Structure formats: structure tokens, C-alpha cells
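// run 5 | inverse folding | seed 20
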């Protein structure tokens, strides 16, 4: 296992370089002048604009700019924005909000999605199964921003005005603690939750037809033990794969949710950087997300051996 982890960490280096190279090239190829975008509607002073370009090497060729950036990344420096602020500091201020939002959404997605899928699989064709299928289909069909505005209106406004229940916040307030993240986290997790429920249902139903499960039933083992120890454990392998990949997606896909609930996280920072053509910030955020993806996929691969002892890495 140790040698496998070392190999995966070594393999992560070219992946990181390739991902940052691609996004840096896309940002470099965007039309428009980032210095003028920084000035807004006013025309940037030519002397000041040239000083900014010289300071941040914006006149250098693409490969030279990328080399300066990636060499700084391996030294722990994500560069500076065109306003002179450290990108690491900007991400450090915004990332805790996105991290908390993503983790709460991940817990909701895992617990509710797996529980709904298990109940639907064990009651195939019955009312609960049909309810899970129809509700997940509805969630998948409705865009996330529509779900966010509806829940914000119903749970955050109408529920308070009609019944005096003020449990869900319309706008994010960090002083509310965990309560501030519940509604936006549910909105963020809603689409993935539906996929997890359907995937769990299909995987468990397929596993229940396996020969080793039938053998366990024939031995007279209790149904709860057969499902929990034999069927569900192996059915979780594709679900763990999806959840591991989706954790990084929750971190990077929170732009709309953070905008709806006025959360100043990575999503808002990234959207503003794209609008202002701040390439260093964009690539810095993407670098962080790539590292999260690499870490989660490594953890998922290690969990395979826990779920299925037949899997070996040496």
C-alpha cells in the first residue's frame, strides 16, 4: 500500500502540470486586455498600464509566463493578482466558506442519497421505490438555480411569515454557524443526491442477485446482516467512486449556489476573476481544485481495499 501511495503521488505531478498548463493557455488565449478590464469602464492610463504589464510580465511569451507561474507553484507561491494581493491570501479567505459548504453538502448527499437508494432497492416496485424514482427524476430535471430560489422563497420567507419558523436563512450569515449552511448545502447537493440515490438502488439490486448473497441467505443468516455485511458493502464500490469524484465537483461547482445565498467563497472569487480576466487567480483556484481531486481519488482507491479485501495494490 505504501509503494502504491508513493506512485500515485509521483503520478500527480504531471497531472498537476498538465491541468495548470491547459487552463493557463485558455486564460492566455482569452480576448481582451486584463489591465483594461481592471480599470473597468474608464480607459486605463497608458503609463500605469505599461507599468503593470512590466511588473507581472504580461508582455512575455506564453511559455515564459507559464514557467514563471509553475515554478512559483512548486515553491508554494500562487502569484499575485493585478491589484497586488497575494492569490494565496485571497484563496485562504474564501476557501473556508466553500469548504464548509462542500462538506455539509457532501454529508447530506451521502446520508440521504444512500439511505433513499437502499430503501428503494429493498422495496422494489412498491410505493417507496416509485417515490424515490419520481422525486430524483424531478430533482435532476430542475436546474439548480431554480431549486435554490424556490427553497429560498418557501423555507426562508414563506415558512417564517406564515408559521414563524426561522430555522433556514435566506441570506448567508456566518454568525448562524451550521444553520447558515444547511439550506445552501442542500441546494448544492440536490443534483448529486439524486444520482447517488439512483446509483445506490441499481447497485444494491444487482448485488442482491449475486451468488454469494444467495448463499448467505441459504445459510439462514439474518436479512439485516446479509444486506449490511455482504450486499451493501460490495454495492458501495461504485458509489464511493462517484462520491470521491463529486467532492471536488462540489467545491468547484458552487458558483451558482454561493451567488444565490450571498456566500463569499471560491465560486464568487472565481467568477469575479473570470470577469476581470485575472488569469493568476483563475489558475490558482484551478490548481487548488486539481489538488483536491487528486487527493479524493487517492482516498477512494484506498477505500476499495477496505470495502473489498480481494483488491490488492502490491
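// decoded
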Amino acid at each position: 500500500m505504501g509503494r502504491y501511495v508513493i506512485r500515485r503521488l509521483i503520478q500527480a505531478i504531471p497531472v498537476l502540470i498538465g491541468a495548470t498548463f491547459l487552463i493557463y493557455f485558455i486564460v492566455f488565449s482569452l480576448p481582451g486586455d486584463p489591465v483594461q478590464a481592471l480599470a473597468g469602464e474608464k480607459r486605463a492610463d497608458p503609463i500605469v498600464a505599461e507599468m503593470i504589464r512590466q511588473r507581472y510580465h504580461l508582455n512575455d511569451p506564453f511559455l515564459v509566463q507559464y514557467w514563471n507561474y509553475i515554478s512559483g507553484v512548486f515553491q508554494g507561491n500562487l502569484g499575485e493578482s493585478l491589484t497586488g494581493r497575494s492569490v494565496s491570501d485571497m484563496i485562504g479567505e474564501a476557501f473556508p466558506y466553500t469548504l464548509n459548504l462542500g462538506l455539509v453538502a457532501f454529508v447530506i448527499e451521502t446520508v440521504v442519497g444512500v439511505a433513499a437508494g437502499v430503501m428503494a432497492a429493498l422495496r422494489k416496485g412498491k410505493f417507496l421505490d416509485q417515490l424515490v424514482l419520481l422525486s430524483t427524476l424531478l430533482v435532476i430535471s430542475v436546474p439548480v438555480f431554480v431549486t435554490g430560489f424556490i427553497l429560498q422563497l418557501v423555507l426562508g420567507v414563506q415558512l417564517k411569515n406564515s408559521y414563524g419558523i426561522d430555522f433556514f436563512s435566506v441570506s448567508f450569515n456566518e454568525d448562524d454557524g451550521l444553520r447558515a449552511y444547511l439550506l445552501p448545502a442542500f441546494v448544492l447537493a440536490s443534483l448529486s443526491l439524486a444520482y447517488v440515490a439512483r446509483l445506490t438502488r441499481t447497485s444494491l439490486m444487482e448485488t442482491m442477485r449475486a451468488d454469494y448473497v444467495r448463499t448467505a441467505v441459504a445459510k439462514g443468516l439474518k436479512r439485516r446482516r446479509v444486506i449490511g455485511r455482504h450486499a451493501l458493502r460490495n454495492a458501495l464500490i461504485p458509489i464511493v467512486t462517484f462520491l470521491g469524484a463529486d467532492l471536488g465537483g462540489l467545491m468547484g461547482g458552487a458558483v451558482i449556489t454561493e451567488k444565490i445565498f450571498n456566500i463569499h467563497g471560491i465560486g464568487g472569487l472565481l467568477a469575479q476573476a473570470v470577469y476581470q480576466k485575472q488569469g493568476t487567480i483563475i489558475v490558482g483556484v484551478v490548481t487548488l481544485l486539481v489538488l483536491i481531486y487528486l487527493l479524493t481519488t487517492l482516498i477512494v482507491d484506498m477505500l476499495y481495499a477496505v470495502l473489498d479485501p480481494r483488491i490488492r495494490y502490491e
